[in-house]
Specification:
The protein has 21 helices and 29 strands. By secondary structure, it is of the alpha+beta class. α17 (542-603) runs antiparallel to α18 (607-638).
């Protein structure tokens, strides 16, 4: 005890106002438990050495509240002052307090946990004179209790089954997870032997486990079966540890049991998947995100020729062509984002260098936390599929070529173009080095044929030697006996049997594979033959025969049509020449007749004679118009129809045309509907007037039961439009497309209405050459409206 403490005790023992009896003070000082006394206001009146050691400082006698240097806490919060403690409340109320727990932080920062007891003191009159406060240090005890409570809470809330037992197998603890797993409550099993959970055939396992525990050994991950209350057998993994007392003596065992039903299922599933993968016909490979191969099944060995030992740990680029490395970067990029790559068609390289066309599907591989750690790839050899696709594409290409050729033959009437197209396309289809068409034309010696078209080789190649002769090789084709296909013509018995060459002439195109197809007309005449050659043997197949034969037949039809067209074209040219000549020659006498009739009309005063002369003039005028139209047709066909291009007033041209027609026809009233007074356009005013007059005369001619024709003139910023509307017999819409053809007349119209069907043809040509358009709107029995427009 230090001097200050001794002095304080001396002062305390001599001051009755501030201390208790000296004997009591001496007794308190020698007690190991911390004790201090205080008056009713809380001021310290005495204390012992144990209190100084516990509190970590020396209280001042007579000073209120011994705890200002200390910080006080309950289990859950910090107290603001001593006044907020239960001790202070007990002192004020004069009540005893047994066991308030506080945490005191001493001036040096250390903490102790105490249990406080308060015993109030009273004088003989029952007046509160103070209190004796006893403080017990429970720091160590509390830590142990907390540790034990914490362990108990962990055990009871664990998802794993935790059981403890004696070395004799008697169950001493049983957590909630054990109850959930086995169905027994704690009350049902505590004190029972562990064998209630063990199948009879596995009781010896318990003997083994207890022997290990008794020897101080731990049993880890022991997989076995146990029985639940309802008789269900549960696969579990056991981990058993010895339990020791304070002296290190083994007194029992603590067992953690984990249900491995799902693990068993997963193991079975994994084994099944492994078996499926290993026996799959598809190549299945897994790899890391860095491309390192992790698994390689039997099918992968068969496909690529590498064993599993050769590939595990290698980079996947071993089987990727250098030109396709970027594909792997793309695939890994997709996988890293959690995306699948499905049916990706590519090429990979086998151990022997063979390129294999594949369809691959790649999926992310994830760990138990859902993190992507790699990729699983299924690869399927699509060589057969690719071959089939190429075959189909080849067929499709050939069909497209055939269709194109048939279309060309059916649409084209030029003999040269037909033969060249047929030769080019058939050469392409057969894959020949060159192809040719020879006419079956015999020369003066009766032996040679005429080359007409050539494909795949320059014509100069055939100019170095004579045309093919009537040899044994060619005879079959030009006689029309059938197709000749030879894998190597140089080994054919018919080859080289004709003088003077007895073989291939010098400078001839090298021909080994040979294919010849006769082209026979509908009349049975052999027009010629298609010939194909290739320097390599065996290039032509039966499939080529099947394809080329109908093409040759179609070509024959096209050639017949072309010849017929040439003949018709020649006749047509003669006809056009005759029409042009006749029209021109008719103009002279018609002009003379018109002049004489006009003189006769002026000289003769007889009214009756004058009437006949005028009618004759009208008929001559019609005949003159007809001849002019025929001459225009001739000019159009010859491309000699001349058009002027000059500005003129469309309204003036329309007025003059209406006036002229109205003067000639008094059966109909022609009405103009327009708000246009003046409109300048560029073109040929006489030809435009000719179109208007033709439309007006047609409108009057084809509306015999009506008495009115309407004309419309309007315009936009870009064009002028004129329409002529009648209320006559109308036209079937099905005939619209043919109306503007040369010499076409609608069959259903009144046969008494004259005309050659060339007026609309000429009008259409005139409007078209003005970059305009001519069309019709009509309904049977309700009339027609003919429109034409030309640009401004």
């Amino acid at each position: 005890m230090d001097a200050n403490l001794s002095d304080s005790r001396t002062d305390l023992s001599h001051n009755n106002a501030l201390t208790t009896d000296s004997q009591v003070s001496n007794f308190i000082d020698h007690i190991a438990v911390a004790i201090y006394t205080c008056n009713p206001s809380g001021s310290v009146t005495s204390y012992n050495n144990a209190a100084v050691n516990l509190l970590g400082h020396t209280p001042e006698i007579g000073k209120p509240l011994w705890c200002p240097p200390l910080e006080l806490y309950t289990r859950y919060r910090k107290l603001t002052s001593f006044e907020s403690t239960a001790m202070a409340a007990a002192l004020k109320q004069g009540l005893a307090l047994d066991g308030e727990q506080l945490i005191i932080q001493r001036p040096d920062g250390t903490k102790v946990k105490i249990k406080a007891h308060v015993a109030p003191t009273f004088d003989n009159a029952g007046k509160l004179t103070g209190a004796v406060n006893t403080l017990f240090d429970i720091t160590g005890q509390s830590a142990g209790e907390e540790h034990e409570a914490r362990l108990a809470a962990i055990v009871n809330t664990s998802d794993d089954t935790i059981i403890s037992k004696t070395l004799e197998g008697i169950i001493t603890s049983w957590n909630d997870a054990a109850q959930l797993m086995f169905g027994y409550s704690k009350e049902e099993v505590i004190g029972k032997h562990i064998s209630i959970l063990i199948p009879k055939e596995r009781l010896k396992e318990e003997e083994y486990i207890i022997s290990q525990i008794a020897g101080g050994n731990k049993v880890d991950h022991f997989e076995t079966m146990r029985v639940a209350k309802d008789g269900t057998q549960i696969p579990i993994s056991l981990s058993v540890s010895p339990i020791m007392d304070g002296n290190g003596t083994i007194i029992g065992a603590s067992k953690i049991a984990r249900d491995i039903s799902e693990k068993k299922k997963n193991d079975e599933k994994t084994a099944t998947l492994a078996a499926i993968i290993d026996t799959s016909d598809d190549t299945i490979v897994s790899k890391s995100l860095n491309g390192i191969i992790k698994s390689w099944n039997k099918s992968a060995e068969r496909m690529f020729g590498y064993t599993e030992e050769e590939m595990i740990g290698k980079h996947i680029s071993v089987i990727i062509p250098p030109t396709r490395i970027q594909e792997e970067e793309y695939i890994i990029g997709q996988i890293a984002q959690g995306k699948q790559v499905e049916h990706f068609e590519t090429v990979r390289i086998a151990k022997n260098g063979t390129e294999i066309p594949l369809s691959i599907s790649v999926s992310p591989v994830k760990d138990s936390n859902g993190n992507i750690i790699g990729a699983s790839k299924i690869a399927r050899d699509i060589s057969t599929q690719k071959t089939a696709e190429e075959t189909l594409k080849r067929y499709a290409d050939r069909l497209e070529i055939i269709n194109l050729m048939v279309k060309t033959i059916s649409e084209e009437l030029d003999l040269n173009k037909i033969l060249q197209k047929v030769t080019d396309l058939t050469t392409q289809i057969t894959g020949a080095q060159f192809g040719a068409f020879f006419y079956n034309t015999i020369d003066v010696s009766g032996e040679s044929y005429m080359l007409y078209t050539l494909s795949g080789a320059p014509r100069e190649a055939f100019e170095k030697f004579g045309m093919p002769r009537n040899t044994a090789v060619f005879h079959t084709t030009f006689s029309g006996k059938g197709i000749v296909r030879v894998d190597d013509i140089t080994k054919d018995q018919r080859y080289g049997q004709s003088a003077p060459h007895f073989g291939m002439p010098e400078g001839h195109l090298p021909v080994v594979s040979y294919l010849a197809v006769p082209v026979v007309s509908r009349s049975g005449e052999v027009i010629g033959g298609l010939f194909f050659g290739h320097p390599d043997a065996g290039k032509f197949t039966a499939e080529h025969e099947t394809i080329i034969a109908p093409i040759a037949a179609q070509a024959a039809i096209g050639l017949d049509n072309a010849k017929l067209y040439e003949e018709v074209k020649a006749l047509n040219e003669k006809k056009d020449e005759f029409i042009g000549l006749a029209s021109h020659e008719l103009k002279t006498p018609l002009t003379s007749i018109t002049g004489y009739l006009q003189i006769l009309s002026r000289m003769n005063a007889d009214e009756k004679v004058s009437r006949f002369v005028n009618k004759t003039l009208q008929q001559v005028k019609k005949l003159n118009t007809l001849v002019s139209d025929l001459l225009d047709v001739s000019k159009i066909e010859a491309g000699k129809l001349q058009l002027l291009s000059e500005p003129f007033d469309a309204r003036t041209a329309l007025d003059e045309a209406i006036e002229l027609v109205q003067h000639s026809y008094n059966t109909h009233q022609i009405v103009l509907n327009t708000d246009v007074s003046h409109l300048v356009v560029h073109g040929d005013p006489n030809r435009i007037e000719q179109v208007i007059i033709n439309l007006l005369t047609n409108a009057i001619k084809y509306s015999p039961m009506a008495n009115r024709v309407e004309v419309v003139l309007n315009h936009t910023q870009h064009e002028v439009t004129i329409g002529v509307k009648d209320y006559g017999i109308g036209i079937n819409p099905e005939k619209f497309s043919q109306l503007f053809s040369r010499f076409y007349r609608v069959e259903e119209l009144n046969p008494n209405i004259s005309g050659l069907g060339i007026g609309l043809y000429i009008s259409h040509e005139i409007v078209s050459r003005h970059n305009g358009k001519l069309w019709v709107e009509s309904e049977l029995n309700k009339g027609s409206t003919f429109w034409f427009s030309i640009p401004l």
